[in-house]
Amino acid sequence: MELWFTEKHTENVKFSIQVDKQIYSSQSEFQRIDIFESPEFGRFLTLDGYMMLTEKDEFIYHEMMVHVPMAVHPNVKKVLVIGGGDGGTVRELIRYPFIEEIDLVEIDEEVVDACIRYLPQTACSFQDKRVKCFYEDGLKYIRKYENVYDLILVDSTDPFGPGEGLFTKEFYGNCFKALKEDGIMVNQHESPFYKEDAYAMQRAHKRIVESFPISKVYQAHIPTYPSGHWLFGFASKKYHPIEDQRAEEWKSLNLKTRYYNEQLHAGAFALPNYVEEMLEHVE
Ligand code: SAM
Fold first, then answer.
1. Position in ligand 1 atom list of the atom nearest CA 45
2. Report field, pTM of the whole predicted structure over 0.90
3. Which helix or strand (DSSP H or E) is residue 92 part of?
4. Cβ 22 vs Cβ 36: under 8 Å
5. H or E element: which one contains 201?
6. Is 103 a catalytic residue?
7. Cα–Cα–Cα angle for 94, 246, 222, nearest 5°?
């Protein structure tokens, strides 16, 4: 007998992974949470049937979300992660000894509990003394803060369900306000390839451009996300992602990474023409 997990990437495209067994399944107050074990990708987490991460390719997403802004901002002390209940983003952040505080705002405590239990590869750093978890809606949390954070990482689900509010103009405006005068925000920015993802990507980009003076987009290859071509947004009050890259300083930290490196940093901002056109269209 064969067991397969299938996600519809469009009305006409399905992506399937063979599964050995289902390890966890629960309907939380916010979403359905499932964790599977697979021969090709190891364990993987889905929310409402959408792929969040697999053990095999999560390093790409988490390294690109964290190390790109960390190699630009010269003095990150206080970081806010919105979403990210699997812990992968926090795992990469705690590698920087000079970060003093990491606040994680996750709407669904059950995601964190399930990942601590069944996905220790990512959920391995919540016990670090610098990490504080807040179980609330990121959209509401961010309203209360002004001039507090050096870096905000929006590690959210897609723009429907509980994640919808994290793609709004109000949210990006409040992130701008919550950042210090040289703060940076990085967000998962959807994909340019399939029509619906591309529409969400353009809409998010338009709203971020309206909120931040510097707004660039960079890319990574993430095999288990729709089309495999995924984007991140780099929105900043002061620092330019390439002109202000501190390659030597970052290298001297001696962090071992599997995807990110100093050359790839600039290369990731070199986008295909069709993506540039989509972005220009809404700028
Ligand atoms: N890497 C992933 C991706 O792009 O598919 C994101 C993974 S992470 C598991 C996303 C998390 O965002 C989920 O655990 C979800 O519960 C959380 N989330 C969704 N909406 C949220 C909100 N409004 N406030 C805080 N967390 C939220």
1. 9
2. yes
3. helix 88-93
4. yes
5. helix 195-211
6. no
7. 60
